[in-house]
Amino acid sequence: MFRPESDWTGQGRAGVQNFYIEAAARVRDAHVDVRHFDWVQPSSGVFSPEKHYLDYSLDGQPRRSMVSMGRPDRRAASGDILYMPPHRQYFGEPALQERHLVCVALGEEFLEELFDGEQPLNKVEPCADIQNISMRRLFAGLAAELRTPGFASQTLVESMLMGLAVELARHMGSRERGSQHSRSPRQVQNIIDYVLENLSAPLGVADIARDCNMSVRHVARVFKEGTGVSLGEFVARSRIALAKELLRSDGARIKEISWRCGFNSTSAFSAAFRSATGQTPKAFRSTSAQVH
């Protein structure tokens, strides 16, 4: 069984190039590393972490990889932060993207000592897209410290891992309490699937509501409650992520890519892309070509 928290030694890297671990640290049975790899060929597979597994994308873009979060009917697009409880099977379909990740594995010894024997994560469900500013800051801090360690680095890394575990327990605990009152988890997944399959089409809230057989008010509220982000933000992020993928791997003209990503004009696409990434589409394509 593929272990995502490992260094992938002996597990096969079909479809992956340029894999390397930039920096790593261990605190008892907790582990954190900064890793890089390129998915260059379509692939899919089943994986199961042995510890509480989290990762964070350092690329500043949502991943378009799809993950079945424990059940076939829980297929979701990976976001900036992904969490998987241990000893469960997940099915993944990674997108063809270059990845820079902070990967964290939290073992039982580390968690039991931190939570004084309590087990706040034992009944928590997986989540493909955690929206939590505090966790993002901790992940970014871990990456910075691993890359350029300073005085008392091990102590600082341990404190940030502890903070990450506490924030995870708080966030997922409140999410679980909220989900007890949510009537529409399947509706949220239907909306996600519809958006990802129709990025070239108009995707205003009214359009999505009509095609998903919901009212405008209901579709916006259900999505926000179920994911923590607005429907408009999810559409915008997904379009930019698709644009990046096409600019890296497709020889199509920028005008065609803008149309395939749902923009009415090249100028509108360029403005949105630059706002999201800090680069024009042309500059991004040139930079990606130099990297590869």
What descriptive keywords fit this protein?
4-stranded antiparallel beta sheet; Arc Repressor Mutant, subunit A; 2 domains; globular; single chain; Jelly Rolls
So what's the CATH class of the largest domain? Mainly Beta
Q: How would you name the CATH homologous superfamily of the largest domain? A: Jelly Rolls
CATH topology of the largest domain: Jelly Rolls
Task: Provide the gyration radius in Å.
Answer: 19 Å
Counting H and I runs of at least 4 residues, what is the number of helices?
10
Overall structural class, as computed from helix and strand content, comes to alpha+beta
**What is the CA–CA distance across the termini?**
30 Å
Could you tell me the strand content as a percent range? Answer: 15-25%
Stretches where pLDDT is under 50 for at least 5 consecutive residues are none
How many strand units? 9
| Average pLDDT taken over every residue | 82
Helix content range:
40-55%
> What best-fitting shape do the alpha-carbon axes yield?
globular
Task: Give the second-level CATH assignment, the architecture of the largest domain.
Answer: Sandwich
Task: Tell me the number of structural domains.
Answer: 2
Largest sheet: 5 strands, antiparallel
Question: Widest sheet: strand order?
Answer: 1-2-9-4-7
> What is the succession of H and E elements?
EEEEEEEEEHHHHHHHHHH
Short description:
The chain folds into 2 domains: 16-179, Jelly Rolls (Sandwich); 185-291, Arc Repressor Mutant, subunit A (Orthogonal Bundle), CATH 1.10.10. 45% of the residues lie in helices and 18% in strands.
